[in-house]
Specification:
about 325 residues; Nucleotidyltransferase, domain 5; 3 domains; six-stranded mixed β-sheet
Length: about 325
């Protein structure tokens, strides 16, 4: 029997869902390749450990940027690695693959994803809009004649959308999300403490003491990096309140996407949204107190979906298992 695979190609993490089985892979979207012949050395967790630590002949890079393909060749190699991992070395029947893309991407970017999927070894490639997939995965009744709002905040982009009758009514996408929060923390450490840190360290700071609102009892950790003045390694104490101040401008822009959607929502659907609230999905929605900040700034109750990291891939998996139900929301190639 031909396998059906759903892939959430994220900027930070890629998840693979196999129809009937469920989630089979969850790895960072990082690929290590050799500089001279472009051979893939490592993918996923193994390649992420190489970020910023590679010798001259190997390059570790993230092939997705802001939710879309930045390096076509590397993305294709990564997709074929995923398909081989799921289907085995010898593929007798090529699988059907569905991939989700941000709702705001151009036709050219959509075609790039479809072409890369087919070149990687898929028989048929399907595309579904990310907010729709996230809504299906968050178990929102998307076919109902009432409005539901979801904001999916990943690594590269944040997308807010209002969904009714199985389709996206209004959507707004900003290419600002988890990675920009990491960059804001790294920039702050450089300005305030003269400390250079890599993206892995900045992400670690975000996960350990990051918060969208000021904490009543501030937390402090020691951050290690390189001194910009002396060029020598050093460690400095950083508090959670400093991190909150440094990431606030980025969070305001993410909330701006939700506000933009609410402003354009038809009044009937707006009243539905006030009753139900806004559902948050994606890895960055796990940032401490982000739901509270969203509620304060929009005036609409916000809550994080259960297993927010898996919403998009689960929704994509449900869609590929029930193609007839969702065929009007899907692009096929």
């Amino acid at each position: 029997m031909r396998k059906r695979i759903a892939i959430d190609l994220g900027t930070a993490n890629s998840l693979v869902w196999l129809a009937v089985k469920g989630l089979v892979m969850n790895e960072p979207t990082v690929v290590a390749i050799t500089r001279d012949d472009g051979r893939v050395v490592a993918v996923g967790n193994e390649a992420k450990e190489m970020l910023g630590r590679t010798p001259g002949n190997i390059m570790a890079s993230r092939p997705m940027r802001d939710g879309v393909i930045a390096d076509y060749r590397v993305t294709e190699a990564m997709l074929s690695y995923f398909i081989r991992r799921v289907c085995g070395r010898v593929v007798v029947l090529k699988p059907e693959v569905m991939i989700c893309v941000p709702a705001g991407v151009t036709q050219v970017e959509r075609r790039a994803v479809l072409d890369a999927t087919l070149s990687a070894g898929a028989r048929v490639a399907y595309l579904i809009d990310e907010p729709l997939a996230a809504a299906i995965g968050a178990r929102i009744p998307i076919a109902a004649a009432s409005g539901s709002m979801i904001i999916d905040i990943g690594g590269g982009s944040a997308e807010a959308a209002v969904i009714s009758l199985g389709g996206v009514v209004v959507h707004k996408s900003v290419r600002i999300a988890g990675n920009k929060i990491d960059e804001a923390i790294a920039g702050f450490l450089k300005r305030k403490h003269n400390l250079l840190v890599g993206e892995t360290t900045a992400e670690d700071v975000k996960l350990r003491i990051g918060s969208a609102t000021i904490l009543p009892q501030p937390e402090t950790i020691e951050v290690k990096g390189r001194d910009t003045v002396t060029g020598l390694p050093k460690a400095v104490p950083v508090t959670s309140n400093e991190v909150t101040e440094s990431i606030r401008p980025v969070l305001i822009q993410i909330v701006g996407a939700a506000k933009g959607v609410l402003e354009e929502t038809p009044p009937e659907l707006a009243s539905d949204i006030i009753d139900k609230g806004i559902v948050m999905s994606g890895g960055t929605s796990l940032l401490r107190n982000l739901d509270r900040l969203m509620t304060d700034l929009t005036g609409v109750p916000c809550h994080v979906a259960e297993e927010p990291l898996l919403c998009v891939v689960r929704g994509t998996g449900v869609a590929i298992e029930n193609l007839d139900l969702y065929k009007k929301s899907i692009t096929k190639r």
